[in-house]
Amino acid sequence: MSPRLDVAVRTLPLIIACGCLVAMISFGPRSAVGLFLAPMTEARGWSREAISLAVAIQNLLWGIGQPFAGMIADRWGTARVLVGGALLYAAGLTATAIIQSAFLLQLTLGVTVGLALAAASFSIVLAAFGRAVTPEKRTLAFGIGTAAGSLGQFLFAPLSLGLIEGFGWQGALIGLAVVTLAIIPLAWPLRGKGHPAVRGQDQSLGAALQEAFGHRSYVLLAIGFFVCGFHVAFITVHLPPYIVDLGLDPKWGAWAIAFIGLFNIVGSLAAGALGQRYPKQKSLAFIYLGRSAAILAFILIPASPATVLVFAAVMGLLWLSTVPLTSGLIAGMFGARYMATLFGFVFFSHQIGSFIGVWLGGRLYDTTGSYDGFWWAAIVLGVVAALIHWPIRETPVARLQPA
């Protein structure tokens, strides 16, 4: 066994453990943002659209920054990127608790936190996993990392609600900012960068991007991931106030977000395991069809705490189960050398969908007083995404195939 491989084997459990904790901490606060919408609106007099726009900008900047964060991680190492992201994250949340104007909200909760997530989110962690594990185990490792992010969503939803009730929304944001600083010591075991470890991986970044964007399946994957962002962001931000609009207690909004996170742990792990046995693109198609069916049932059946929790559980199973499959397809087609960068560009498409889902959802509500039209749009887009993913092929590019 080579010295490099021996070190990788001995440190793999530590890499997985610290990476999972980073994914959990970074994903937790941003997934609970819907719980802050009502108290921030009441305290500051901001419209629901104004706060939705800030979250939409956050998602867009997360997407714009992701390819660049991936390039930095591939070139200079993962740990440096994670530390910078943690510092930005804490600064953005703290500033959001202090500012008084809706314009500054776009800069703090929107731009600052968005760039922080690009540098400290699960996609950077998954790229580190991709370098550390064997190709046969990558999809499972990606599933574990994604499940850890979902655990953060499950834990931080009730935690955020408790902080809001105990210390107010401003105190809750500052408390969450302190928690995000724990990413800094956890980043050290994830240090490292991409390297041409196997035949065919030694190529320039420009050549890698040209190869990917000239690959039909990669382009389809990026287009389809747009729909995932549209679904996830809209539901994360607007489901809690939608539940209140239906006449239910606000606590059911918190529990819905928590249930999504809890059941996504199962969904992500299952997707990681299934991705090792069955075609990943077909699994993705069925996930999007399942989302459409779940949303259709939710808006047609009379609302109650039971229907909210069932819907959240089903959506949780289908939530970020797309991530290990999408990551696995990218690594399978192009290898792990520039995985952080290539996943970053696909994730940018995801975040464009997130921007539209969050902002346009708030805009539609302020204009019509209802989310009904948006739910129907989500159903149609789920069917379209299933059709887009079906013809994708996972075959490695010629550069990685046996001579």
Q: Which features would summarize this protein structure in a list?
A:
0% strand; 81% helix; disordered N terminus; 403 residues; 16 helices; mainly alpha; Growth Hormone, Chain: A
Describe this protein's structure.
It is a single chain. 81% of the residues lie in helices and 0% in strands. The two termini are 24 Å apart. By secondary structure, it is mostly helical. It has 16 helices and no strands. The longest helix has 43 residues, at 138-180. The chain has a single domain (7-190, 205-396), classed as Up-down Bundle (Growth Hormone, Chain: A).
**Count of structural domains:** 1
Sheet bearing the most strands, described?
A: none
What's the N-to-C terminus distance? 24 Å
CATH topology name, in short, is Growth Hormone, Chain: A
Tertiary shape: globular
State the CATH architecture.
Up-down Bundle
Q: Which structural class do the helices and strands define?
A: mainly alpha
DSSP helix fraction = over 70%
User: Helical segment tally?
Assistant: 16
The average pLDDT score comes to: 86
Q: CATH superfamily assignment?
A: MFS general substrate transporter like domains
From the alpha carbons, calculate the radius of gyration and give it in angstroms: 20 Å
SSE string: HHHHHHHHHHHHHHHH
Q: For this structure, what is the CATH class?
A: Mainly Alpha
**Into which percentage range does the β-strand content fall?**
under 5%
SSE topology:
Layout: H1 3-31, H2 34-44, H3 48-76, H4 78-98, H5 102-120, H6 122-132, H7 138-180, H8 183-186, H9 205-213, H10 216-245, H11 251-274, H12 280-300, H13 305-317, H14 322-334, H15 339-368, H16 372-389
